Amino acid sequence: MSQSSVMQRHVPQTAGKTAAVALLNPVVGEIASALLDLGGAAHRDVVVAYVAKQRGLYRPPDSLRRELGAAFDAYCDGACDPRAPGLLHLPYGPQSARWALTDRGYRMLRMGEAR
Fold it and tell me: What is the pTM (predicted TM-score) of this model?
């Protein structure tokens, strides 16, 4: 799934209405795409390595680790609930190194892949 396709998705809701999820930071799109490809959740180091590979890098530089970490933190703001309204959360709490898609984000991205 390309970064641009992750950037704009619509989630069906009740009564035929849709809710758009907007990602202002393209790095969040890369993280979401990586998590989707990795099954919905992974250790942050695995996500960083995956994004580095997608960018054509053999080893992820520290600057990429910081960039992805800052984007993830800014986006999810420590959300630990898988039912959170956004795309990303920390499934094992704020001190966890595991990143995950929310239930809604996972369904939305999987559904969009079938289109």
Answer: 0.76
